[in-house]
Amino acid sequence: MQTVKIAVIAGDGIGTEVIPEGIRALEAAGRQCHLEYEWTHFDWSCETYHKTGRMMPEDGLEQLKAFDAIYLGAVGFPGVPDHISLWGLLLPIRRAFDQYVNLRPVRLFDGVPCPLANKQPGDIDFYVVRENVEGEYSAMGGIQYEGTEREIVSQQSIFTRHGTDRILKYAFELAQSREKKHLSSATKSNGIYHSMPYWDKRVALMAQQYPEIKVDQYHIDILTANFVQMPEHFDVVVGSNLFGDILSDLGPACTGTIAIAPSANINPEKTFPSMFEPVHGSAPDIAGKNIANPLGTIWAGAMMMQHLGYPEIHDTLLNAMESVLRNKNSLTHDMGGTASTQELGAAIVEQIHY
Ligand code: GGG
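That is the input. Now the predicted structure with glycylglycylglycine docked in place:
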């Protein structure tokens, strides 16, 4: 028996409800492949912040280094400003462990009601590749004349050549591995003077190394319109930290629900543990009601196993998801059903054993 060591941070809100279902599904799929998990739970969250003034202990990142991967639910809860909860937990992990790729698949599944007209499963199947450690997510800048009429706030975005080129390379390689071989890049270079024309220039330069790939360079505004009007057009979409984040909520919303969407924060060199989470946040409005959809977390778990070298566990989980989604009785309310979080989780486990 092989064992993988996973650090679990369920976090806040519905994070604490969906993570147990993810673990249940991973256990069931792992058993079939003679794999064991060693789960170590960390109660780092906004509640911890209230008690200790920190989202995680001072040596939190050091503790996480010992694991093969990190499985995270969600962070953020009313009472703790969002920038404190993100900069106290999620963002330091992404940055310290150089998880510079945020890979977010978008797929329309049979059985999930699609809000767009005339779309069939298979029509929507693409990846958003989000730069994950620099760009607009920066703590650089500041406030002056605070509290006065002259108050000035500035916020800097950071785009390094190293950081831009490595995420573009990942996206080009991914596009190269796919049938359509089509890469779309998101910027706003008519309005954002320095960083976005720079990104466009690096895309055009790298495109020369990948002559088989069709490359489209979009402004983010028309790109979002195209996501809604013709999502079947896309294959691999690459964007900065902020644009990638926005696109990877919009994409799954076009497939019926963002709750199904996974997010893999990857350190491709495997120098550090990578982190896997659902795209969705802690959703305080539905927390405690047992109605959260656990599929984003289960799919994130599948991506974790793919990353750790167990593609058969990934496929088992994805096949189970595909089968369960065809049964309306198993769907949670965001997908038009009435099943609870645990009922949908149980349906996945049952399907794996089937
Ligand atoms: N699933 C983790 C979570 O809570 N995500 C919500 C969120 O706002 N994440 C910010 C980000 O991905 O940059």
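The pocket of glycylglycylglycine is lined by residues 72, 74-76, 86, 245, 277-278, 280-282 (CB under 6 Å).
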